Amino acid sequence: MNYRKILLFLIFPFLSGPLVAADVTVNTNSLQGKWVKDGKNNCDTAAAEYVLFRGNGTTEAGRGIEPKSVGFWSVSGNIITLHMLVIPMEDDTTNAFFRGRYSYSYLTAEVLGSTDDVIEIITGTTGNTKRMILAKCT
Predict the structure, then answer these.
(1) Residue 125 phi/psi, 5° resolution?
(2) What is the pLDDT averaged over residues 88-97?
(3) 31 Cβ partners below 8 Å, 6+ apart?
(4) Measured distance CA(70)–CA(62) in Å, rounded
(5) Rounded distance, CA 61 to CA 64, Å?
(6) Do 114 and 26 touch, CB atoms closer than 8 A?
(7) What is the chain's alpha carbon radius of gyration, rounded to the nearest angstrom?
């Protein structure tokens, strides 16, 4: 029985398209809390990628229990905006200039659909977008 629920949770969002109509308005109260990528079963996984939205407008994101960035968040309609300070990453191979230095990151995420505990978002710029489904941990 539990395997069916997990399978349905993982597959249904991909088969159904957006979770609700395209003109979504995000409720900031329901957004508060910890959200993880790749399903609710990752809530207790040490390697899970997560984002935490706090009620005071602050946020953190990372993997496992260690935040990789901290900052502020806001919502307007179906757009979540994040202003983040990213901690130095010694193993950053993407840009030698930022290796070992703090950096600023600005990110907007368009909410395509949501339920009480699942949110489908798209981030990035034209030609370089990333679609994600996040699950809320309770």
Answers:
(1) -115, 170
(2) 65
(3) 53, 75, 80, 119
(4) 9
(5) 10
(6) yes
(7) 16
Tokens of 73: 């968040």
67 sits in which H/E element: strand 66-76
Q: What are residue 51's DSSP bridge partners?
A: 35, 61
H or E stretch at 112:
strand 103-114
CB atoms inside a 10 Å sphere around CB 47: 7
Residues 21-60 pLDDT 10s: 445 778 889 899 999 998 898 888 888 999 999 999 999 9
Contact between 33 and 52 (Cβ < 8 Å):
yes
Rounded CA separation 73/99 (Å): 25
Q: SS3 for 83?
A: strand
Q: Token pair for residue 96?
A: 């030698």
